[in-house]
Amino acid sequence: MATLPPGTLMQRAAAGLARRCALLLRESGGVYGSTVVLLVGSGDNGGDALYAGATLAARGAAVKAILLSPERVHLAGLAALRRSGGVTVAGLPSRADLVVDGIVGIGASGGLREPAAALVKSLSDLRGRDGARPPVVAVDVPSGVAVDTGDVPGDAVQADVTVTFGCLKPAHVVGAAAALAGHVELVDIGLGATLHADPAVRVPDAADIAEWWPRTGPGSDKYSRGVVGVATGSATYPGAAILSVAGALAGPTGMVRYAGSADSEVVQHHPSVVAAKRVADAGRVQAWVCGSGLGTDDGARTELRSVLATSLPVLLDADALTLLVDGQHATDLRRDAPLVITPHDGEFARLALERPGADRIGAACKLAAWINAVVLLKGDRTIVATPAGEVWVNPTGSSALATAGSGDVLAGLLGSLLAAGLPPERAAIMAAYAHGLAGRLAAEGGPVTAPDVAAALRPVLADLL
Fold first, then answer.
1. pLDDT at residue number 110
2. Within this chain, do residues 180 and 232 fall inside the same structural domain, yes or no?
3. Which residue ranges are tagged as binding site?
4. Are 291 and 404 found together in one domain?
């Protein structure tokens, strides 16, 4: 801001915001003759909304601004709106074609306060030209969300589109706030070199996964591709073994070795798998997956100890995490080889003695540092945190994955990536990304089960790669 004429960044932001609003209005009949309502708070967020409203008013829209803090309104933005024909009003009109949420921006804390909260709740009563509720466009972030954590501490705006500036914020990609942002459009306002610092959060895309995925070559064989060991399931829970092996078989490794009492069921479903009763008898592998359906008896504890005693990368899930809680395996966790854990919120709470809470990113980082492991914290926006504090958030999550056994599939796929030689954080990111896409694809056919997710992995990966 010190190197640009005053107001330059706001004008760029407002131009990008006005463009997106115009595109939405075009879908419902055009800008000219439409009614646009601006919810205007104090400061620059309200200024962005006012300048964008001025642009829309100049194109023939009837722009009506509700000033929630008249004494602190952005005066230059308000003057621009009035020059273009926009007006201020005391409350919501009976009809509107678009609502712009410029109440509060990235400097706010806590949920919406009155009278903003009541005003936002009444938006559901608005109707547009087509009789439907008009779309809501949030300026930078939906008002009321916790920008740095993605928490929603109280009343907040449910946006259809969020237009943000310069860079994404954590609230766009993690926590309950991400669901309130709707479609997020990033507008480049020329921040340039100021964005070169390490990001608080990283988000993978399809190009990342394709670039990192191991490829076979003319000299590849089943051993050079990697061999993954899977110590999951039991006579009581053979399905966990079958599903985790299915996930492993979809990965890049050339061979899967299974160790456990569900060996006969596993081989029946997956005849290419080499099976044994115990980890000690499984043979040579490059990484271990342990936990899903293993049980928590003495036999399960012995298998867990056998896995942790190796010098190989290990993924622990489900029952293996339960076995860690009593502290008997504290010395087993003092290992130099990579360790990945994949808890859901309940398992996280048992390990960390508290639920992830409002700051899921911070909680995952704290646990990762405490146990010196990569933590994959499951959720709609799965988080991958390293002991060094690097954080990734997976963008492909789907509620379709909230079904029994889907985590077993994820564990197997992740273990296969570990055995192929991927660093633990990349293996976790890649597995979560592909698993999320598989859930979406499976959901296209109706209600999803874990076998559907496993079956969808191959076409998803074929498309990605």
1. 85
2. no
3. 240, 293, 344, 378-382, 407-408
4. yes
* Predicted pLDDT of residue 327: 86
Mean pLDDT of the chain: 95
pLDDT for residue 340 is more than 90: yes
Q: CATH number of the domain that 37 lies in? A: 3.40.50.10260
- Say yes or no: 340 and 366 in one domain: yes
- What is the pTM (predicted TM-score) of this model? 0.93
- Binding-site positions for AMP read 378-382, 407
Tell me which residue range forms the domain holding 77. 8-195
Q: What is the pLDDT of residues 363-380, one digit of tens each?
A: 999 999 999 999 999 999
pLDDT surpasses 90 at 126: yes
Above 80 in pLDDT, residue 2?
A: no
Residues annotated within a binding site for (6S)-NADPHX: 240, 293, 344, 408
pLDDT reading at 316 higher than 80: yes
Three-class HEC string of the chain = CCCCCCCHHHHHHHHHHHHHHHHHHHHCCCCCCCEEEEEECCHHHHHHHHHHHHHHHHCCCEEEEEECCHHHCCHHHHHHHHHCCCEEECCCCCECCEEEEECCCCCCCCCCCCCHHHHHHHHHHCECCCCCCCCEEEECCCCCCCCCCCCCCCCCCCCCEEEEECCCCHHHHCHHHHHHHCEEEEECCCCHHHHCCCCCCECCCHHHHHHHCCCCCCCCCCCCCCEEEEECCCCCCHHHHHHHHHHHHCCCCCEEEEECCCHHHHHHHCCCCEEECCHHHCCCCCEEEECCCCCCCHHHHHHHHHHHCCCCCEEECCHHHHHHCCCCCCHHHCCCCCEEECCCHHHHHHHHCCCCCCCHHHHHHHHHHHHCCEEEECCCCCEEECCCCCEEECCCCCHHHCCCCHHHHHHHHHHHHHHCCCCHHHHHHHHHHHHHHHHHHHHCCCCCCHHHHHHHHHHHHHHHC
Pick the last residue of a domain from 146, 175, 195. 195
Residues 153 and 238 in one domain: no
